[in-house]
Each structure stands twice: as C-alpha cells, then as structure tokens.
Amino acid sequence: MFIEHVNLTVSDLDRSIAFYCDLLELHVRWKGPIDSGRLGAHVGDERCYLALFQAAVEGRVTQDYGRPGLNHVGFVVDDLDAVRARLERLGGVVHFAPDYEPGRRAYFLDPDGHEVELVQY
User: Which of 121, 116, 114, 118 is nearest to 106 (CA)?
Assistant: First the structure.
C-alpha cells in the first residue's frame, strides 16, 4: 500500500505548480478544469502526486497542531542539503530542522502556508 495523492487547495495554481515542480523535481501529470471553471493540476511522478486545486476564495492556511486536521505533508528526498538549497532559491525558509533517528528533517511553509516536511533517510 502507498498514498497515491494528497490534495491541496492553493491561492495561485500556477505559482504552486512551479514551486513544487522546481523544489522536488516533479512534473505536471495533468492540468485542467475541475468544477465551476476552477482549474486543478496533478504534479508528481509515475507513482504518486500532489493534487493542486485553485481556491474559490482568498485566504491562507493556518497551522494548529493542537486541533484535529492535517498538520503537514512529508516527502522523502535523496539529498536534503540539495533540496534545502533549492528551497532557499525559491524563497522558502526552514523553520524547524530536527535531527533524530531515523533520518534528517527540515520543515517549511509553502507559498500558501501548508507545512511541508523533507526527510532524508
């Protein structure tokens, strides 16, 4: 078993496509209308992807580990230092980088405030 996709609603679809494709070296698997004229896209690889949906209203994600809800999405990367360097070039900032077994980690917020974890095992 594996997770096929995670769906994120974003404020600027093209910005999010570019961000995730550049950061994680993903590609657009699909882009098109989803409902009422809104667009969506799938970015990923042959096995799994992020489903990105254009928001219908303005807003920003709020993080609250004290309440029920999705806290973050994690990606396994081969070279954490290289991905962190790409993140910095894209304007991202790591806000938490614990180093505990197994693996090294770095947490940051994407352009809409979704928390993302990068882990190298």
Answer: 118
Residue 27 contacts residue 70 (beta carbons within 8 Å): no
20-72, pLDDT tens digit by residue?
Answer: 999 999 999 999 999 888 999 999 999 999 999 999 988 888 888 888 888 99
* Joined tokens for residue 81: 């230092």
Residues 6+ apart with CB under 8 A from 104: 80, 97, 119, 120
- Cα distances from 41 to residues 14, 30, 68, 87, 104, in angstroms, run 9, 5, 27, 21, 30
Q: Where are the domains of the chain?
A: 5-57+71-120
DSSP label at 118? Answer: E
- 3-class state of residue 22 by DSSP: helix
CATH architecture of 5-57+71-120: Roll (3.10)
C-alpha 87/C-alpha 69 separation (Å) is 25
**Residue 92: Cβ within 10 Å count:** 19
Q: Token pair 């096995």 is at which residue? A: 47
